[in-house]
Write a structure and sequence with these properties.
Structural class: alpha+beta
Shape: elongated
Number of strands: 11
Number of helices: 17
Number of domains: 2
Organism: Jiangella alkaliphila
Strand order of the largest sheet: 4-5-1-2-7-3-6
Pfam family, one: DndB
Protein name: DNA sulfur modification protein DndB
Strand content: 15-25%
Amino acid sequence: MGRDKIKDAPVARPPARSVQTGFEYVFPSIRGVQAGREYYVTMCPLRLIPRLFVFDEEELPLEMRAQRSLNKARVPEIARYVLDNVDSYVFSALTASVDADVTFTPIEMGGPNERVGTLTIPMSAKFVINDGQHRRAGIQQALSENPELGDESIAIVMFLDVGLERCQQMFADLNRYAIRPAKSIGVLYDYRDDMSAVTRLVVSRSPLLRDLTEMETSNLAQRSRKLFTLSALYNATKTLLDGLNDQSLERQVDLAAAYWQLVAEQFPEWEQVYNRETTAGDIRSDFIHTYGLVLQALGRVGRSLIAESKSQGKWAAKLRLLKQIDWHRSNDALWEGRAMTGGRVSKSSSHVLLTTAAIRTALNLPLPPDEQRAEDAFTGGNK
């Protein structure tokens, strides 16, 4: 049934072009049809990618191109990803249009394999990337440092070119519903980043954090029964352990788990939610101590405590003073302008500094220079 559909479907082909002569590319391919138009899925050696897909955004104005401007800052990141993970990197398919008369030769006419065959493209053809120009540029840079990667391959979805307008529409359609994954699920699934591993282990060691941490999204719905997001704990733990890269991962997990356990003991509201004595929504609406801003500020405080002493007894003595702080959102005298603007919690860098300064002051800890400058500017502007 599926074979008949492809065979009998009306196929829109581009206008006939003059017959091309000369050398040709021959790719193993699978033929398909979308919106009545033929397309092909093929594999291409990485070494051919820079040659096939030339990208020079300076040649044409934006309205005459079929791609966005290249973000050159992303290219070294992609190349480094490949070079650092030659045994495990993963690339999704490139999507491209080809402006030439192509020939598809099935390996079997009329049989179950008529969709599978070879795609012959003249070397004079012009290729346009509709989706994946950053991957293409990253591949080119990676090949310059490790030419042996050239024998590996990447999938390409190849459409027959029907003009600039169609190519631009393809780019818009391909990116219309593209959504960047939430940072929380990125932390959950990332096994290359050490701090992601540390954060996951810290959460897994604590029954409270394990129960009250949202692992997939980075925003909590109003009715969510979670207090924290994994991405917020990641940022806070990264801040907490900053400068401890010389420590083993196990040691970092031990330090972070012990610290966040001590912090949790200072907030009875967290325990109440864990014990189902109150709802997470009520706590989040009444207090600010579950927000990523405060967690990051507590991470900064903890980093100073760890630098001063590895003794958890000394940390506990200081952290017990957290109970003396009025964490209610309604405490405008303390939090408005520091943690909040117009009653809304803000996570800007200046708010992090001011919130940390308030916590340090309550814990009788000295302010580092950056927090002192922020505090002086804040209090000076409110006198």
